[in-house]
From TrEMBL:
Keywords: RNA-binding
Stretches assigned to coiled coil: none
GO MF annotation terms: RNA binding
Protein name (Swiss-Prot/TrEMBL): RNA-binding protein
Alphabetized SUPFAM superfamilies for the sequence: YhbY-like
Biased composition (Basic residues): 99-110
Length: 119
C-alpha cells in the first residue's frame, strides 16, 4: 500500500471531487471480479471513485484497505459510501508520479499581481 503525505492527499481529493464512481461494490462484497475491475480502472485512470452499497462503515474500511493492499494503491478518501483511491501509472516510478501540490503558506496577495502600475 502506498503512503501519501497530507498535501498529496489534499491535491488528489480536489482532483477527485468532480469524478463519478467507476466501480460499485454490491451487497455481495469484494469479489475477485470486482478487484479485477478496480485494477483495470486504476490502470486507465489512476484516480478513481468506488461506490460501496454496504451500510457498515467498518466493512467499507476493510474493503478500502484490502483493495489498496492487493493493488498497491493509496487510499485517498473514505466519505460516506464513496472510496477514493489512487495508483501511479505503471510506466512511471511512484515517486515521479506523485500529484502536484502547492507549498503551504500564504497565498499571494492581489496587490502582488498588479505589477508596476503607478498610483
Amino acid at each position: 500500500m502506498l503512503n501519501l503525505s497530507s498535501n498529496e492527499r489534499r491535491a488528489l481529493r480536489a482532483r477527485a471531487h468532480s469524478l463519478h464512481p467507476v466501480v460499485s461494490i454490491s451487497q455481495n462484497g469484494l469479489s475477485e471480479s470486482v478487484v479485477k475491475e478496480v485494477n483495470a480502472s486504476l490502470a486507465s485512470h489512476g484516480l478513481i471513485k468506488i461506490r460501496v452499497y454496504h451500510d457498515d462503515r467498518e466493512v467499507r474500511e476493510h474493503f478500502l484497505a484490502t483493495i489498496c493492499e492487493q493493488l498497491d494503491a493509496a487510499p485517498v478518501q473514505h466519505i460516506g459510501k464513496l472510496l477514493v483511491i489512487w495508483r501511479p501509472p505503471a510506466d512511471k516510478p511512484a515517486q515521479a508520479a506523485r500529484p502536484h501540490t502547492r507549498p503551504l503558506g500564504r497565498r499571494p496577495s492581489k496587490r502582488s499581481f498588479q505589477g508596476n502600475s503607478e498610483r
